[in-house]
User: What shape does this take?
Amino acid sequence: MSEIPILSILIFIPVVGIFFMLLIRNNDDQSSQNLKHTALWITFLNFIISLSLLFSFDLNNPDFQFVEKYAWIESGISYHLGIDGVSILFVILTTMLVPICILASYESIKFSVKEYLISFLALETFMIGVFCSLDLVLFYLFFEGGLIPMFLIIGIWGGERRVYSTFKFFLYTLAGSVFMLLAIIYIFISTGTTDVETLLVYNFTTNEQLILWIAFFTSFMVKIPMWPFHTWLPDAHVEAPTAGSVILAGVLLKMAGYGFIRFSIGFFPDASEFFAPFIFSLSVIAIIVTSLIALVQEDMKKLIAYSSVAHMGFVTLGIFTFTVQGIEGGIIQMISHGIVSAALFLCVGVVYDRLHTREIARYGGLVSKMPFYSFSFMIFILASLGLPGTSGFVGEFLVLLSIFTVNTYFAIFATTGVVLAATYSLWLYRRIIFGALIKDDLSEMFDLTRREIIIFLPLIILTVFIGLYPKPIINIIEPSTEKIVNQIKMKLD
Amino acid sequence: MQNLVFILPEIFLFIVATVLLVTGLFLKNIKLINLLTIFSLLVVVILILNQPFQSAFLNSFVVDEFSLVLKIMILIGSIASLIMFVSSKDDLNINIYEFPILIIFSTIGMMVMVSANDLLAMFIGLELQSLSLYVLAALNRNSLLSSEAGIKYFILGALSSGLLLFGISYIYGFSGNTNFNLIAVNINPESLGLIIGIVFVLAGLAFKVSAVPFHMWTPDVYQGAPTPITGFFALAPKIAAMGLLVRFLFNSFGEIYIDWQQIILFISIASMMLAAFAAIAQTNLKRLMAYSSIGHIGYALIGVACFTDEGLRSLLIYLMIYLIMNIAVFAFLLSLKRNDGYFESISDLSGMHKNHPLRTMLIALIMFSLAGIPPLAGFFGKFYIFVAAIESEMLFLAIIGVIASVISAFYYLRIVKIMYFDEPKEEFDGSSIKSLNLLYYPSSILIIIFFIYPSPVINISEYAIQSII
Assistant: This one.
C-alpha cells in the first residue's frame, strides 16, 4: 500500500482551493470567470485523484483500505479515515458531481460568484469527509458541517421562497441530527471510543440498541428523507439553484443511506431487525404516496423531488432486508439515483436557464427545437423509471428480488411503485417534449450548447454502462457487503 | 508581610490604577493611559504566571491552578474591551480617561473573586467588581439610555448584593464559619438555615452571571451601555462569577450537592429555554447578544450541575470558547459603522455581504459557531457539556440542551439571513480601525480552525480543575 494519505488529500484539496479563491479578486466579469475556471480545475483535479482510488483499490479485500489514523481530540476520538467497497463509489460520485455542478453554474450564477464557489468547495470537503470518516464524531462533524454551505447556497442563490425553504431545510435536518449527537456521546461514554471499526464488532445490549437506533434513525430519516418527514425536500429542491439541487439529490441524500448501512444495521443489528417491518411500511408508503403526489405536480423540480423520495424508499427497503442482494441493490440504486436525478435536475436547469420557469404547462413540443436535449432527457427519464438497460433497473431489480425473499406483500406494493414511476415520468416527458410547439415564447429555444453537452455526456455514458454491464460495480461492492451481512448474521445468532 | 506576596498582581494593579488616576487629571492623552493600562494588564499576566500556588490570609485567598486560568481569561477579556474602547471612544462620546481605570478596578475585583475562599473575600471582590461596572454602564453621561442602564443595573445589583449578604449571614450563622473549607468541615446536612443561606447566595450569584430568573437587567444594560462596555460585561464578569460560583459550591457544599444541584438544574434549563425563545423576537443586536449570553450561561451551568470532573472540565472549555466567540462578536459590532455613527438594529446588517464579503463571511461563521454547528468551535463547547451531562446520567438535561440549541439556531440564522439574503443598504465605513483587526481576525480564525487541534484548550481545562476536585 502506498503511504500517501490520499483520503486526506481528497478532503483537503477543496480547502486549499478556498484559500486560492480568497486571494482572487472578484470585481468584474473577467475575474469571476477566472474564479469559475479555478474552482473547476480544483474540483476536476480532485476527481482525477479520486479515480486513482479505483486503480489501487484491492477488490478482494472487504476491510477498510487507505486507512489513516491520528490522535485527535482525546483517547477514543481520533481522526480516522478509510473506505471500503460500500463507500468508495460515493466518494467518486461526489468528486464527479461537484465539477459538473460548477460547470452547470457557469451561466446561471450572476452575482457573488466567489462566495458561491467557496460554498461549493466547502461542501465538497464535508461530503467526501462523511463517506471517508471512520470515527463517529468526525462523521458528525462532516455530516452537520455540510449544512452551512448548503444553507447559503439555497438561501443566497435560490428562487423566490428561498428563505423559507432554506430555514426549513436547516432546522429540519439539525433537529433530526442532534439526537444522533446525543447517541454518539452515549456510545462514547459507554464504550470509551467512537471508532467505527471497534464499534462494528462491539455488542450493545438490546435495550441500548433500540434507543440508539431510534436516535440515529431520526437523523437519517429526515436526511434521506422518509415519509412523513420528507416535506423539506421538495421545498429545498424547488428553491435551490440548479447545481444546489443536483448536489442535494446526488450526494446529500446518500449520506443518510450510507449512514443506514454503516451505522444503523452495522452497530445495532437486533434493533434493525426489530424495526425492519416498520421501515418497510414507511418505505412502501413513501413509494406509493410520493409517486401519487408526483403525478399531480405542476412544477418540474417538485415532481423530480417527490420521485427522489420514492426512489429512496427502494433504498431503505433493500438495506433492511439484510441480504447481500438487498444492500447491493440499495447501494446501486443510490449511485444510479445520484447520477440520474442529478442529470434530471440539470435537464430542468437547461430549460430553466432559457425560459426562467419550471412550470410544466409552459412547455411542450420541445423535440422539434431541441433534439439533443430531448434525447438526453429521455435517457434519464427511462433510467429514472427503471427501464432494463439503464442503471435504474439494476438497483430496483436487486431490491425487489431481495424483498420478495423476505416479505411478498411489501414486494407487491413496492412493485406498484415501479408502475407509478413510469406513469409520472413518461407523462412529464410527454408534456414537455412532445406535442406541437404552439407556445410563442418557446420558438426562441435553442438546443444544448457545447458546455451542456460536456455536462451530459459522462452522465449518459455512466447511466447506460451501469445498466448494461453492472458487473464492475458489483465487484467493488460485493466483498464489503458480504462482510457486513456476515457480521450482522453473526451478531444476530 | 509574607501574605502580601500572594496578592502581588492585585496590589500592582491597584497601584497602577491610582497612579493613572492622578496622572490622568493632568495628562489629557487618553490613548496613552489606555496603552499603559493594557501594558500593565499584560505585566499582570506575567506576574500571575509566575506566582507560587498557595493560600494566604488564613486560607481566605487561594492561588491555585483554577484561579490562574480564570484570571488569565479575565485579563484577556479586559484587554479586549480596552482595545474596543480605544477604537470607538471618539464616536461613542465616551472620551473619558476613567474608563481604563474603572476597568482595572473591576478587574481587581474579579481577580479577588476567583481567588476567594472565604465568604467575606468573595463579597469584597464581588462588590469592587460590581461598583465599577455600575459606573461603567452609565459612562456615557449624555445618553439617556446609558444613564438608565446604569441606574437599573445599580438598583438591581444592589438588591442582589443584599440578597447575597443575607445568604452569607445565614451560612455564617448556621455553620459558624466564613471560610469555604471550614464550612465544608463543619457542615450539618440537616440544617435548614444553611439551605436558605445557599439559596440566597445562589440568587445573588445568578444575578451576576445573568441566569434566569435573575436575568431581567441583562438586555436593558447590554443595550444601554456603550458597546465596548457591553463587550466587557459579556466577557469578564461572567467568567469571574462562574469561577466564584464553582468554588463556593464545590469547596464548601460539595457534601450536600443534592440540595443545590436542583437549583442549578432549574436555572440552567430556564436560561437555555428562555433565551432561545426570547431572542427570536429581538430587533436590536445588543439585546440579542444579551439573550444569547443568557443562553450560553445556561449551557455552562450544566457543567456545574453535573458536579463531576467531567462537568467542571466542560464548563471551563465552554467558558474559553465563549470568551473567544464574544470577543469576535463585539469586535465586529464595533467595526461596522457608518458616517452617522454605530448601528445597533439587526436590519442595518441587511445585505452587507455585497459590500463586505470577507467580514460578512466571518460574522456568519461566528453566528454558526454560537449556534453550535460543527465543525466550528462552539460545537465543541456544547459537545463537552453534553458529554458531561450524559456521563452524570442526566440525559434529560442533554435533550433539553439540544432542543434549546436547535431553537436558538433560528435566531442566529436570522442574522445570517439578513446579512446574505436581504437587499443591501448603505455601505459601512471601510475597516479603518486597525486595532480591531487585532481582535476579530485572530478570534475568528481560532473559531474556524479550533477543530484541527483542540487539545490545548482541553489540556488547560484539565490543568485548571485539578485544584478544585
